[in-house]
């Protein structure tokens, strides 16, 4: 239980620090904390959010009962879908000790490369993967299981 509380606190600190630096559009918007809001209603904001990775890491750790976090609600089906996608990406990365490119993760999970990048960055920031080699473009870096 203590480890869980520690990871929630760490994720919350990272989210707050990122929010202070970037002032995301969702800050102070009631639609993000309202239980009746559907993720599709705010998807246009979440998709371009500069702190989506931190938001997702926090939501995954804390499992907030209300609101939209990183484009999903965490009390229902959307949260399990996001958690499953993270687990699937972690398994793909763990299968190859040399590392797996984001392009490969996107192909194997049938995702757009930007979505795969967010998934892999979340794995890195939550300690489930590490960056091994970064090529010129950030979307081609490779990660291996931590």
Automatic annotation (TrEMBL):
Record-linked Gene3D superfamilies: Winged helix-like DNA-binding domain superfamily/Winged helix DNA-binding domain
Domain 4Fe-4S Wbl-type: 25-79
One Pfam family linked to the record: HTH_IclR
Record InterPro entries: 4FE4S_WBL, Tscrpt_reg_IclR_N, WH-like_DNA-bd_sf
Protein name, UniProt field: 4Fe-4S Wbl-type domain-containing protein
Source species: Microbacterium deminutum
């Amino acid at each position: 239980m203590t480890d869980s509380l520690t990871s929630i606190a760490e994720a919350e600190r990272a989210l707050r620090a990122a929010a202070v630096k970037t002032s995301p559009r969702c800050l102070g918007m009631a639609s993000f904390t309202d239980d009746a809001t559907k993720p599709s209603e705010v998807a246009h904001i979440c998709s371009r959010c500069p702190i989506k990775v931190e938001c997702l890491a926090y939501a995954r750790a804390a499992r907030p009962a209300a609101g939209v976090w990183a484009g999903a609600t965490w009390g229902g089906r959307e949260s399990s879908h996001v958690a499953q996608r993270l687990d699937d990406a972690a398994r793909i990365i763990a299968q190859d000790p040399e590392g797996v490119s984001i392009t490969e993760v996107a192909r194997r999970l049938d995702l757009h490369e930007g979505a795969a990048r967010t998934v892999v960055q979340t794995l890195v920031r939550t300690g489930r993967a590490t960056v091994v080699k970064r090529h010129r473009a950030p979307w081609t870096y490779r990660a291996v299981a931590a």
